[in-house]
């Protein structure tokens, strides 16, 4: 059996659609027929620059899919979705030494069962594809800076968080998860996205384009009487204003920033503020446990209970696998409050 895949033949791309053998699932793996793929900035970084490192060419990248389980491998837990089930899945070759059976840019893909979550019929494949990497990144943001996903702040504790870049795909799940953790949520976005972000759980929204946005946030924190010493940086090049806010709000203790974009040399810093690049645990057993907690706990339960919704809005790129290059080019040019999805 064979299927089509969008392959990076050599460093620098572009993607080329080719036929490749369809694999059988191994230990704790599911084979999934892909119906929709969501694209992320890391995908065009890998296509265009080979970064993060691509260890094998021809390469298949990508991580976000929705589709139908076709086959289960040995030792898959009884709780895992059965063949025929509609699912969303974290299907990435990044933690598989680049092995091309695992990248999402193809019609059939392997995924570890702990990263596969059932999709109810009420959620389309298009909307289901947006969850995996954005959810993993948003929730890993909390654990990266030492905040347990079981945290439940009470209103009396007045713990606030600054989410800079709330309309990004990661930002929308950072908002949803911050609400469940009990934070008072301050977030930045273009004015046109403010009401939408409030519907996801943001308490206060600020237009990052205004000249006095930093003083607006500081004033709001003072008016609300909250402790603001935690932040997630969700947009490239926005660490400095976050530090400017925390300088005024963090008080005597250590403030912490989870930085989702790559932390580049020469990034700004501030005494008393710890900035950490967001990553899931690197040890394989720890990462599997974390993935299980994120997907089988937070996401699966949230979808079932309706406390987690697909976000942000979906923009469909036509052309199937052939349309992935254009989807990545569009994303590279910049989108706002939108997730680009390709139907396969």
From TrEMBL:
Pfam families (UniProt xref): ADH_N, ADH_zinc_N
InterPro entries per record: ADH-like_C (IPR013149), ADH-like_N (IPR013154), ER (IPR020843), GroES-like_sf (IPR011032), NAD(P)-bd_dom_sf (IPR036291), Trans-enoyl_RdTase-like (IPR047122)
Keyword annotations of the record: Oxidoreductase
Residue span, Enoyl reductase (ER) domain: 12-342
Family: Belongs to the zinc-containing alcohol dehydrogenase family.
Protein's name according to its UniProt entry: Chaperonin 10-like protein
Source species: Aspergillus cavernicola
Lineage of the species this protein comes from: Eukaryota, Fungi, Dikarya, Ascomycota, Pezizomycotina
